[in-house]
Design goal:
The chain has 2 domains: 241 residues, Aldehyde Dehydrogenase, Chain A, domain 1 (3-Layer(aba) Sandwich); 178 residues, Aldehyde Dehydrogenase, Chain A, domain 2 (3-Layer(aba) Sandwich). The C terminus is likely disordered. It is built from 16 helices and 18 strands. Helix 5 crosses helix 15. It is globular and about 85 Å long. The chain is α/β, with parallel strands linked by helices.
Length: 517
């Protein structure tokens, strides 16, 4: 989720704060519209050099950058910890996954995007047909604060590997991570192919209007709509990865300990500030009580505080505390029960794990993205009801299924861009899988082959190998050529499946058929 702050009147700098203590981490510039355009112009020059390199040469540069990031992993994780408040272990995991995606994009871009032959077909047999995927130019990336490295790296790494330059606008809550990435890239490559601009919503809007060739945005659905509106002014295409309200389904034959562990981690890791995190659980009535007991047993020892070794950090964005509190209160007001936590679990910086049951399906806690360590758990009569409830929101980002016998079947019926079976959020860690959603969760894809192609345009080339037997694209075309074309097409495509005839009309409920002797 990216929620944009308004720029303070006349501010030329701003401070990033440690959400655990409120201490200043660093001071950063508020880049103006003119400065954003200058950055895009520099990126345009760098893109000319970068796109002219071979895939192998770009792979070498990206591998060098990957090496620098990896060797400074502890430094990066500490910066992420200070800007987001997340535990060092979670920051290290995030950075490690981002590095893995960078490596995959660098080594697979050539295989996916290089020129390849395609069939020209019999009608155009005299042509040689090829398709390749060429870089767009300069990509604008607007990143979130909850995963300030992993999430934008899904756009940055794949756009760079495809041959584009990138101008990155990180969240105003985590600008230091963005500057760190740009600085280490410059040290590794020596050209400003990756640049960063910092600031508030105005800076992001300026990037949308600065002449970039595509914008990749991760954040809330509401902010995504504003990004699309700004990009529409110049017909700039966008990739939108917006919010989610992901569900976890537990079938009667599921491993309940594993399902409970996954539900708790999916709901509470990163203090619940995960777009693909688990916010709803639907459990088969045969195992509901057992699952809930195991979930509560695991959850009772989990605490969010500033103590060393704490597994849960603070809520990074202070305004989100009001959202979390309102969702819990609405659930309780509408007949729900807090079997763990509750309204009192929402503090000044930290939110304790909260598990709600008997919550109506039309409540805020079920329909709207909460973005905190909360979970609604509901009993369902069967998996049909579980699927129906899972698909009953306007979001469609990720999902999870725990089932020994029906995992693939149930996963295929969920209306979401991604599903994990007997695991949680595992799809995000697999570089070859596309990442993205449908509905209010956005459109377009990062990661995998689809993520590489997202930052390119397909270039189709038809080359005549020899003169055509049938000269069709000419005003000297003959009647004989037209007849031969009709015969060829009939031979190739005229044997379609016969459409069954409609049943005969009936009279008085009796089908009158002709008798045969």
């Amino acid at each position: 989720m990216t929620t944009v702050q308004a720029r303070p009147e006349g501010a030329t700098t701003f401070e990033s704060l440690d959400p655990t203590t409120g201490d200043v981490v660093a001071t950063h510039p508020v880049h103006t519209e003119a400065e954003v355009r200058e950055a895009v112009a520099r990126a345009r020059e760098a893109a000319a050099w970068w796109s002219a390199l071979s895939f192998d040469d770009r792979e070498k540069h990206l591998t060098a950058w990957k090496g620098v990031v990896t060797r400074r992993l502890a430094q990066l994780a500490d910066l992420m910890h200070r800007e987001t408040g997340k535990p060092h272990g979670d920051a290290t995991l995030e950075a490690a996954l981002g590095i893995d995606h960078l490596g995959w994009a660098a080594t697979h871009a050539g295989k996916v995007l290089k020129r390849r032959k395609v069939s020209a077909g019999l009608v155009m047999a005299n042509q040689a047909a090829t398709v390749e995927y060429k870089p767009l130019g300069v990509i604008g990336v607007i990143g979130p604060w909850n995963y300030p490295l992993f999430t934008p790296m899904g756009s940055i790494a794949y756009a760079l590997a495809a041959g584009n330059a990138v101008v990155f606008k990180p969240s105003e809550y985590t600008p230091g991570v963005g500057e760190w990435l740009a600085q280490t890239f410059l040290e590794s490559v020596g050209h400003p192919v990756l640049q960063v601009v910092t600031g508030f919503g105005d800076t992001g809007a300026a990037l949308c209007r600065a002449g970039v060739d595509k914008v990749a945005f991760t954040g809330s659905t509401a902010t995504g709509k504003r990004v699309m509106a700004a990009c529409a002014e110049t017909l700039t295409p966008v990739v939108i990865e917006a919010g989610g309200k992901d569900a976890l389904i537990v079938d009667a034959d599921a491993d309940l300990d594993a399902a409970a562990d996954a539900a708790l981690w999916g709901a509470c890791s990163n203090a619940g500030q995960t777009c693909t995190g688990v916010e709803r659980v639907y459990v088969h009535e045969q195992v509901y009580d057992d699952f809930l007991a195991r979930l509560l047993d695991q959850a009772r020892g989990l605490r969010a505080d500033a103590q060393p070794g704490s597994q849960l950090g603070p809520i990074t964005m202070p305004k989100q505390l009001d959202v979390i509190r309102s969702h819990i209160q609405d659930a309780l007001d509408r007949g729900g029960r807090a079997v763990l936590g509750g309204v009192e679990a929402v503090g000044e910086r930290f939110v304790q794990p909260t598990i709600l049951v008997d919550v109506p399906e039309d409540s805020l806690a079920v329909q709207e993205e909460t973005f905190g360590p909360t979970l609604t758990v509901a009993k369902v009569r069967d998996m049909e009801e579980a699927i129906e409830r899972t698909n009953a929101t306007r979001y469609g980002l990720g999902s999870t299924v725990f089932s020994k016998a029906r995992g693939m079947e149930l996963a295929s019926r969920i209306r979401s861009g991604m599903t994990a079976i007997n695991g949680v959020i595992t799809f995000a860690a697999i570089p070859s899988l596309p990442f993205g959603g449908i509905g209010d969760s956005g459109f377009g894809r990062i990661h995998g082959e689809d993520g590489l192609k997202e930052f390119t345009y397909p270039k189709a080339i038809a080359r005549q190998r020899f003169k055509p037997v049938l000269a069709l694209t000419t005003f000297t075309r003959t009647d004989k050529a037209e007849q031969q074309l009709a015969q060829l097409v009939t031979m190739l495509h005229g044997r379609g499946t016969t459409i069954p005839k409609a049943p005969r009309a009936t009279t008085g409920g009796v089908n009158r058929r002709r008798r045969t002797r």
